[in-house]
Write a structure and sequence with these properties.
Elements: H1 17-32, H2 40-48, H3 50-62, H4 90-93, H5 100-118, E1 129-133, E2 140-143, E3 149-152, E4 157-162, E5 166-179, E6 186-191, E7 195-199, E8 203-208, E9 212-219, E10 221-225, E11 235-236, E12 239-244, E13 247-252, E14 268-275, H6 276-283, E15 291-293, E16 302-308, H7 312-323, E17 326-330, E18 333-338
Parallel strand pairs: 5-6, 15-18
Antiparallel strand pairs: 1-4, 2-3, 3-5, 4-5, 5-8, 6-7, 7-10, 8-9, 9-12, 10-11, 12-13, 14-16, 17-18
Helix pairs in contact: 1-3, 2-3
């Protein structure tokens, strides 16, 4: 079998010895450097052919990692079954090594790897383009091959491409926070192939709106490039920049819960005398059921506190207590601000 061919991987077919040998090599490399498990190079090899997934699962299970590592092949449209009796002697290929050091790393990173693989584009792996996406209410942290970290906010989509002299993150939808690893290569977050936010080693967030965008810098300095915006002064840590209606406006970032990153990246949000209607609008970004304020007189009610974005119910209960109202769940959403009955 030629490992570069594309096609169906039969679950009971004997795995090509060469492919299985490659899988064993990857396992040994991962033992020496666990970060390889989430590297672009390893993901590209895994994506190149369905047999690579089956061979890697087989090799891992042979080393008694079956309970820890089980790559999801559903995204590759191929079934994965328990390994067949076929065995390759890993010890004959390289000196035997203990996997004790990598067990924890595999367990901690496998969920991230499975998530990444499930979102890879159909573009051939040779293009070195990876795609990631979050659903409503999800916030995901991704480790890139250059050691940079990306945080994807709820309902966001990005494409990532590592080039020889440039690292690109195209923001297609939503919001992304980048913790950029220091390298000579510039790190760029792009919008619509026209606007770029450039840094070498810093931390900043970019949000793409319907007809606007925001840039918030938490560490370092970020430059703005693209058309008439190319002359824009760089944005320093502690400042934000918003583009709307063909106008740019700068603003100070409010104090955060954790230095150097936006609150949402740690699944939290804080309100400080925030209008209730505005707080509900922000919570709705993460709620699977929309929150609807029934009593419009409460729109300007000031609310303060720190809330867990993964626990919308806690926010709802807080609103009930602060406003002395009740809420009701309906098929259309959660209705807030309803008057309490005599028994409430």
């Amino acid at each position: 079998m030629n490992s570069s061919n594309q096609g169906y991987s039969h679950p009971n077919r004997v795995i090509d010895p060469q492919i299985l040998a490659e899988a064993c090599d990857w396992l040994l490399d991962i033992e020496a450097s666990p970060a390889i498990l989430t590297s672009a190079k390893f993901e590209a090899w895994l994506r190149a052919h369905p047999e690579h997934v089956r061979a890697f699962n087989h090799a891992a299970n042979t080393w008694q990692l079956g309970g820890v590592l089980n790559l999801d092949a559903n995204s590759l449209d191929q079934p994965i079954v328990p390994p067949s009796p076929q065995v390759i002697s890993i010890a004959e290929r390289r000196p035997a090594k203990s996997l004790s050091k990598v067990l924890t790393a595999l367990a901690a990173t496998v969920c991230l790897l499975v998530f990444s693989l499930s979102l890879l584009p159909t573009t051939p792996a040779s293009n070195n383009i990876l795609a990631y996406q979050t659903q409503q209410g999800e916030i995901q942290q991704l480790q890139l091959s250059d050691s940079s970290a990306l945080y994807l906010d709820s309902s966001s989509r990005v494409r990532v491409q590592m080039q020889e002299h440039r690292r690109e993150v195209e923001l297609i939808q939503g919001r992304v926070f980048s913790q950029v690893a220091h390298q000579p290569r510039e790190f760029v977050v792009m919008l619509n192939q026209s606007t770029e936010f450039v840094a070498l080693g810093t931390a900043y967030s970019v949000e793409k709106l319907a007809s606007a965008w925001t840039l918030e810098v938490y560490q370092g300095v970020v430059g703005v490039r693209g058309g008439a915006l190319s002359g824009t002064a760089p944005v320093h840590a502690g400042w934000g920049l918003k583009y709307q209606d063909n106008k740019l406006s700068r603003y100070r970032l409010p104090p955060g819960l954790q230095a150097g990153q936006p609150d949402w990246s740690s699944h939290r949000i804080q309100f400080d005398d925030t209008r209730l209607e505005q707080a509900i609008r922000q919570i709705n970004r993460y709620s699977l059921q929309p929150l609807v304020l029934q009593d419009k007189d409460l729109a300007g009610f000031a609310i303060s506190g720190v809330f867990n974005l993964q626990d919308v119910e806690d926010f709802v209960q807080s609103v009930e207590g602060l406003t002395q109202t009740r809420s009701v769940k309906t098929p259309e959403g959660i209705l807030l601000g309803l008057p309490r009955g005599a028994d409430d």
